[in-house]
Design brief:
Number of helices: 10
Largest sheet: 5 strands, parallel
CATH superfamily of the largest domain: Cobalamin-binding domain
Number of strands: 5
Order of helices and strands: HHHHHEHEHEHEHEH
CATH topology of the largest domain: Rossmann fold
Shape: globular
Strand order of the largest sheet: 2-1-3-4-5
Radius of gyration: 17 Å
Length: 212
């Protein structure tokens, strides 16, 4: 099998919610010579995007979405040692958080892993994070970029509060702010005064690369 086929097998295992078989598919892809980042992005990441699309379309429900997160975690186990070996930590610091009121973090976690493997230092504050905690992390770690995630439309209020608190702390001009998540759009990013919008994990990483 060629690299495309083995990576497709990883993708399908995620979409099929195959928690028992995903790590085997990942190991098979690596054994076939597939690049770890290609397995992460084209396999696990692409599979999660399809799961997200099916959730939005009403084909998958919350149970499937949560199971997909566990499948993702299982698939990452064989990959993590290989990705962290390439972690150079030289491009600057990115603070990641899912905004206050939102507990979803699958997409954010994927972005964090991809950023680390690309040479960024990542401060992941987790989910349901208050704006002041984000401000404190930016100040403490002298972050160059803040990545904010949200899946739920009502959390736009939390996004606005975070942007305003960064400005009040005198930090807004020192950092680039990007947003991502199911309810975010380029238009929302512009309206909120953000510096960019990542439609998926790869787009978010490319934005960070551009900013540094």
């Amino acid at each position: 099998m060629n690299e495309h086929d083995v990576i497709k097998g990883v993708l399908e295992s995620v979409v099929d919610l195959d928690i028992d078989g995903v790590s085997e598919q990942v190991r098979a892809a690596l054994k076939a010579g597939a690049d770890p980042r290609a397995v992460l992005n084209g396999g696990l990441g692409a599979g999660m995007r399809i799961v997200g699309e099916r959730f939005q379309a009403g084909e998958y429900f919350l149970t499937e979405l949560l199971l997909a997160g566990e499948v993702m975690k299982a698939g990452l186990v064989p990959l993590e040692p290989l990705l962290t070996k390439t972690d150079i930590q030289g491009k600057g610091t990115v603070v990641l958080a899912t905004v206050k009121g939102d507990i979803h973090d699958l997409g954010k976690n994927l972005v964090g892993m991809m950023l680390r493997s690309s040479g960024f230092e990542v401060i992941d504050l987790g989910s349901n994070v208050a704006s002041q905690r984000i401000v404190e992390a930016v100040r403490q770690h002298r972050a160059k970029i803040v990545g904010l995630s949200m899946l739920l439309t009502p959390m736009v209020v939390s996004l606005r509060s975070t942007i305003e608190d960064l400005a009040r702390a005198g930090l807004r001009d020192q950092v680039k702010v990007i947003i991502g998540g199911a309810c975010t759009t380029p238009g929302l990013a512009k309206e909120m005064g953000c510096d960019g919008h990542g439609e998926d994990a790869m787009a978010a990483v490319l934005l960070c690369e551009k900013f540094v």
